[in-house]
Amino acid sequence: MAKDGTNRGGARVGAGRKSKSLHDKLEAGQEATVIDLPTPTDLEGHVMPPVKKYLKAKQKNGLEFDAADIFKETWEWLVERGCEKLVNTQLIEQYAVSVSRWIQCEECISKFGFLARHPTTGNAIASPYVSMSRDYMKQSSQLWFQIFQVVKENNATTYQGSTPQDDVMERLLRSRKGMN
């Protein structure tokens, strides 16, 4: 409570001790709660939700939009870890679109360079693709951290290996060579 009687301040976002993953809690001998989903009796198989139309749309430059492939890779990665029911499908879609847009911006930077011409003065300015690329990279990283946090908190074993986020750079490099 401030001197003037208003209720301001409080804990800052992200302040405090970070929560431990399920694996770390079990390893330390602490009690841990797990989201307990009902197990089907004899059903096996995972139905991937249908890929939305906008994730497969042709782009203005005539190339395919990579979002559908990224959505599928991320979904399959979640299925392997048993967390596909815990992550909202819209979050995966947002992640796929953000990564695809980042790849498009990087391709434009490679094609047009880091500089652009100012529309009225004709002077050299920084390419708008650079800032857009930075924004999409930040957005896709934040979305990936949200997805990975669910996996981290709900897996009893530590995860080591490649993730769809690791494959983003590989996809970018393949698209530059024309292999994608």
UniProtKB/TrEMBL annotation:
<dbReference type="InterPro" id="IPR006448">
    <property type="entry name" value="Phage_term_ssu_P27"/>
</dbReference>
<dbReference type="Pfam" id="PF05119">
    <property type="entry name" value="Terminase_4"/>
</dbReference>
<protein>
    <submittedName>
        <fullName>P27 family phage terminase small subunit</fullName>
    </submittedName>
</protein>
<feature type="region of interest" description="Disordered">
    <location>
        <begin position="1"/>
        <end position="22"/>
    </location>
</feature>
